[in-house]
Design goal:
With 351 residues, this protein is α+β, with helices and mostly antiparallel strands. The protein has two domains: 176 residues, Elastase, domain 1 (Roll), CATH 3.10.170.10; 161 residues, Neutral Protease, domain 2 (Orthogonal Bundle). The strands form three sheets. The protein has a six-stranded mixed beta sheet, with helices on one face. Helix 4 packs across helix 5 and helix 9 packs antiparallel against helix 10. It binds zinc ion (ZN). Its main location: secreted.
């Protein structure tokens, strides 16, 4: 179980730059990512393991509280590193430690307060994170038990704790591991990626009290330095527009099935075609209006924690599962069900 935030095709592009420090940082991140993948022999999924389906929980997580442990790798590539802040301890000097601590808390809060879920496994799992991993490490990842953040190279990427959606995205891979556990390849892999983006966006919106109309729907905002012409890694509102830069290229995500990318790279385009279900969720949220974590988020949450998905479900099966989830929660003549169907039709997944 290993999921990194920055997709391999972007790191590969950075690794070819003439700017030696940036190229070397990207090469190290690529090499490190490949090594970790080989060691774990699985990517974002534990093959052969059945998902632990938990009964859907409703809102009402007022009594639930996180248990957080933040460690500092001190620029080594060893985990977990030195423990620097645990639950209830005061802020420290290091902003990366405090950002990680707060980000884990805001992610816990969304799942607890909106869906009554007690941490990633639903049973109070300790939230662990390590900051300052490696030298100028250009990535952040979930390794199956902990979140790990690099400091970035400082020229293209800033430190990865800066973006709350990075934390929400990676921890949702932890939730996925305990729920639908979609295979990290092809369409189920793109859905796995998309579900992480959906709840990452919802973590930020819940934290800042933004409605679907007010929210940016950007994933990884604040990660690029001001030398990059881009606002984030991905946009759910307008996939393909998050960045367009001479150095790092243009955001390659499609928004609809018309732009579907057939590729063997990136585990069959998991970070590319995730733009399609991402945009479907955005369209649903805007059609329903108000707070996206309420009805739209509830439908997605019911879908990944329910029994209708298989580990290899593709886009059409996922779309049908969201429609079934909307119908069972809100009824067959409901506005919610109509909006779900309309959203998937707009992106070309349903006819
Ligand atoms: Zn991911």
């Amino acid at each position: 179980m290993y999921c990194s935030f920055v997709p391999p095709y972007l790191l590969r592009r950075l690794s070819l730059l003439e700017d030696a420090p940036v190229a070397e940082a990207a090469q190290r991140a690529l090499g490190r990512d490949a090594l970790i993948r080989r060691r774990r022999n699985a990517v974002c999924a534990r093959i052969g393991e059945h998902p632990g389906i938990l009964p859907p929980a409703g809102p009402g997580g007022e009594g639930l509280h996180p248990t957080r442990r933040i460690s500092d790798a001190q620029h080594q590539e060893r985990l977990p590193g030195v423990r620097v802040r645990t639950e209830g301890e005061a802020e420290v000097q290091d902003p990366a430690v405090n950002e990680a601590y707060d980000g884990l808390g805001y992610t816990f809060d969304l799942y607890a307060q909106a869906y009554g879920r007690n941490s990633l496994d639903g049973a109070g799992e300790i939230l662990r994170a390590t900051v300052h991993y490696g030298e100028d490490y250009d990535n952040a990842f979930w390794n199956g038990t902990r979140m790990v953040f690099g400091d970035g190279d400082g020229k293209v990427f800033q430190r990865f704790t800066k973006s709350l959606s990075v934390v929400g995205h990676e921890l949702t891979h932890g939730v996925m591991q305990h729920t639908a556990n979609l295979v990290y390849q092809g369409q189920p892999g793109a859905l796995n990626e998309s579900v992480s983006d959906v709840f990452a966006a919802l973590v930020e919106q819940h934290r800042f009290g933004q409605t679907a109309e007010e929210a940016s729907w950007l994933i990884g905002a604040g990660l690029f330095t001001d030398q990059v012409n881009g606002s984030a890694l991905r946009s759910m509102k307008a996939p393909g527009t998050a960045y367009d830069d001479d150095v790092i290229g243009k955001d390659p995500q499609p928004a609809t099935m018309a732009g579907y990318v057939d590729t063997r790279g990136d585990n069959g385009g998991v970070h590319l075609n995730s733009g399609i279900p991402n945009h479907a969720f955005y369209r649903l949220a805007v059609l329903l209006g108000g707070n996206a974590w309420e009805r739209a988020g509830q439908i997605w949450y019911d879908t990944i924690t329910g029994t209708r998905l298989g580990r290899e479900s593709g886009f059409a099966a996922f779309a049908e599962a969201t429609a079934a989830a909307a119908e069972s929660r809100y009824g067959k003549d409901s506005e919610e069900l109509k909006a779900v169907t309309a959203a998937w039709t707009e992106v070309g997944v349903l006819e």
